[in-house]
Design brief:
Elements (H helix, E strand, L loop, with lengths): L1 H23 L1 H13 L15 E3 L5 E6 L2 E6 L6 E7 L4 E4 L9 H7 L4 E4 L18 E3 L4 H4 L4 E2 L3 H4 L12 E2 L2 E3 L4 E3 L4 E6 L8 E5 L4 E3 L7 E5 L6 H14 L5 E3 L12 E2 L1 H16 L10 E4 L4 E5 L18
Parallel strand pairs: 5-6, 7-10, 14-16, 15-19
Antiparallel strand pairs: 1-2, 2-3, 3-4, 4-5, 8-9, 11-12, 12-13, 13-14, 16-17, 18-19
């Protein structure tokens, strides 16, 4: 009997240690498991529903014309339905995000404009930086001390910044940054001005671009229909709330939000609205105050509205995302 009790006590200790280890190392573990077991195969081309102004460029990419000088490059067969945006001015163009690695998009972009094209990522995840080095002129926002991280303007992301492990990409790229910008800076394209807006939350370095001439916010992964990812190793819910409150204050209510992801099989889900931002703010406040119940464990899922859910980390000590400051309820 004593031997059995000793064995059970030892087993309990081992289980506790294992649970604690899994909790504190869940970010790299879940990232690796995501790459091995979660990322689904490409959607069959014949199963893709195209939008009204969307056409195939090859067997993987589509292009959607937003207006005469703005195009969305889509990856509708990818399970996250990636979107990059070509924004054309009178003198030059800017490509905001460059999609997944391993696919050359330079020919497509140069087929849409003969103006010089610079590229800028909304953040450093692999699925937004795939073709950065294929273009002349990389612009990066100096948020989260990225400029200090670079050596002689050569920027190598960390594994958590790049998240390539989630797609079985284990080598980190290095990019030669030609121009650094800061939040509030204006990028002049000639007759068209883009304002750099810090939108941390999904990642600390995330930025968006606001175009006053078209009233469009190119939002990256800040907000989109479907699943909003706030469970990444460096996501921050408090930053998500701060960002949302700032945008609601600064942007007009009729702003058009074009996001870095759509929803597979829903070609109408290209972006979000001011009301979606307001709903996100309400949901985040309820999450902070414990007035809304989530489902699941990792990720934990909370409803924002009938179009959007937000996926978060487990609340607890040293949680990468559950960092809400203590705030008194009204």
């Amino acid at each position: 009997m004593k031997t059995l009790k000793k064995f059970l006590r030892g087993l309990a200790v081992v289980l506790v240690i294992l649970i604690v280890a899994v909790y504190f190392f869940r970010a790299p573990v879940t990232s690796a498991l995501w790459g091995l077991f979660v990322s689904p195969p490409l959607i069959a081309q014949e199963d893709v529903a195209l939008g009204k102004n969307e056409t195939w460029l090859d067997d993987y990419h589509t292009i959607e014309k937003i207006d005469e000088t703005t195009y969305a490059l889509n990856e509708p067969r990818f399970f996250q339905d990636n979107l990059s945006y070509l924004i054309i001015g009178e003198d030059r163009a800017l490509l905001f995000d460059t999609g997944n690695p391993g696919r050359d998009i330079t020919g497509f972009m140069r087929g849409l404009t003969d103006k010089p094209i610079t590229v800028m990522p909304s953040h450093l995840h692999y699925d937004h930086t795939g073709s950065l080095s294929d273009f002349d002129g990389i612009v990066v926002a100096d948020t989260d001390n990225l400029k200090d991280q670079a050596e002689d303007n050569l920027l190598t992301p960390t594994h958590y910044q790049y998240m390539g492990i989630a797609a079985k990409l284990y080598d980190l790229p290095t990019w030669k940054v030609d121009t650094w910008v800061k939040p509030g800076d204006k990028i002049e394209l000639g007759g068209r001005t883009l304002i750099v807006v810090a939108t941390p939350g999904h990642t600390p370095e995330s930025v968006s671009l606001y175009d006053p001439s078209t009233n469009i916010l190119f939002a990256g992964d800040y907000l989109h229909q479907g699943e909003v990812y706030a469970f990444m190793p460096n996501s921050r819910l408090q930053e998500y709330l701060d960002t949302t409150e700032s945008l609601l204050k600064d942007l007009p209510k009729d702003v058009r939000i074009y996001a870095g992801h759509g929803v597979p099989h829903r070609p109408d889900a290209l972006g979000a609205t001011y009301q979606d931002m307001s709903d996100l703010k309400d949901a985040l406040i309820k999450m902070r105050d414990g007035d809304i119940e989530g489902t699941g464990i990792l990720p934990r899922v909370y409803g924002v509205n009938d179009k959007i859910i937000i996926l978060t980390d487990i609340p607890g000590p040293d949680s990468p995302v559950w960092d809400f400051r203590a705030v008194d309820k009204d």
